[in-house]
Amino acid sequence: MNETDLIMDRCEQLATISSQPDRLERVHLSPEHKAVNALVAEWMSEAGLSTWQDPAGNQCGRLEGREPGLPALLIGSHIDTVPDAGRYDGMLGVLLAIAVAGRIHGSHNALPFALEVVAFSDEEGTRFGMALLGSRALSGSWNEEWWSLADKDGITLAEAFQDFGLDPARLPGAYRRPENYVGYLETHIEQGPILEDHDRRLAVVTSIAGARRYAITVTGKAGHAGGTPYDRRRDALVGASELVVEVERISKQRGVIGTVGRLQAFPGGVNVIPGVVELSLDLRAEFDNDRDDALAELWAVVDEICTRRGLAFETRELYRADAVPCDARLMRAVDAGIRSTGDEKPMAFWSRAGHDGMAVVNLTPIAMLFLRCRGGVSHHPDEHVKKSDVTAALDAFEAAVLAIAKEKTAR
Ligand SMILES: [Zn+2]
Description:
Alpha-Beta Plaits; 11 helices; 23% strand; binds zinc ion
């Protein structure tokens, strides 16, 4: 079996390790997580790496450089999934990293740094509603309050650690030290259609979008649908609907991405004017100030809508992550890697989705390589990549690692 076939075959194998019989779902600290860590450790050993599971449940492997104990280039991605997932989001990046390490081990061309491959335990946040738990532990950006987060069965993160055979008290052992790393490189499917639309296979990621998420409540007054004339209505849902349309208008105009993914009207009777509406807002952009300017305009417009309609509104920020720029030196290496596959002018654009790099940047500079996926589809079983694109990604990834090595030697 050639390298690409082996990677594709391993994606299939990982896709069978699921908590659901008919679809892929593999969450943090589950029996399936344990099973994939064991399998990934086996593949890491075959590639010539020494392996261990860190105190956060991240599966790790290490290939020494020219001499033992050198700082490492961290490469990898995440091994957990969303519910009803595809088979490439995260997993493909882990398998490509193992294959790159295997190639370098096989070439006996020791690098001026070690390679550390990581399969992050949790990126999606499916189980505990908090994303990036694996990479936040590794990068030392842990919050003690997270121990009491609970899953849908009421099992807390602390209990889940113990059930998995990990000791919460030992978590700080997962924190890495910046002086031991030279950078982080991840390959991931694009999860969007830009590469496909431009008929290109690979791209350099320039930054990972910052996102802000809000819970918004619009309050009016419930009343009888038949008996309340329009001039006396304070219909929260009609006001919220205007808000939703404004989110789209402002986002398009300002080149940011705004989404209302959830909306619920109360009391929810067919013959009752909605008195309260709760809705969500997810707003992301390449640059934080663009995002925040769009938000300021939106709140001003919502204020005007609510005043005009006799409504009140309240907002509560649920999540905030600032945009994370990729490192210029590492981006040059990714660009050189893509060029080595015959693409003379590699595309470069920002990631609309979040990635482990957002946490890892607290430890070491980051960069990413994007790989085309069919129709831009992800977080869905229809996720699909071309075998020839995987081959190109593997070649580009290896060439990028070698470019970093060359640059480090020259300095
Ligand atoms: Zn992912």
